[in-house]
Amino acid sequence: QLVGVIGSRSLPESFAPRVASVVSFFLSLGFSIASGGAIGADSFALSAMLDQGVCPERAIASRGVIFSAWQSASGFPASVRPQVARFLTSGGQVVWGSASPGSPRQVAVSALLGRNQRLVSACSILVAFLHGYSRGSLYTVRQAVSRGVPVIVFLCGDASLPGDLASHCFVMHFP
Q: Per-residue DSSP letters for the chain?
């Protein structure tokens, strides 16, 4: 079974250990992990998968999937490309998207939303780390709720969850 770990691109580095704990917990239960391969929460989830310290490394990475908006690794943010490359060489899987690097904003946004829909469709649980206002993450949470996928939301800092979603999610607050 696949657990989606997503969240705000603005999630502070101080939350990386919390994301890593969640990833470790679900891996220890035999779940595989899905992420969007972006910065912030996605990057922390990817790092946690790669840094489990389990030998061989391939055993953990092969239990991960990145859902990409892009057609190739060069579409990922430059800061996560080394992680994505390491993930791929360690047996991780990427589900490639439709946008080519350098696509116009409208094409990229459409591909990102499509990526989020594919991720939710594949997951049996969604975990979201929200910090500030994150339109893409809220869209993904809303998609999961509408499909009946259980959602765990960690609200970090001043983040909030709209009332229509809060009653459908398990919510935890972190200052």
A: -EEEEEE-TT--GGGHHHHHHHHHHHHHTT-EEEE---STHHHHHHHHHHTS-PSSHHHHHTTEEEE-SBSSGGGS-TTTHHHHHHHHHTT-EEE--SBPTT--HHHHHHHHHHHHHHHHHH-SEEEEEEES--HHHHHHHHHHHHTT--EEEEEETT----HHHHTTSEEEEE-
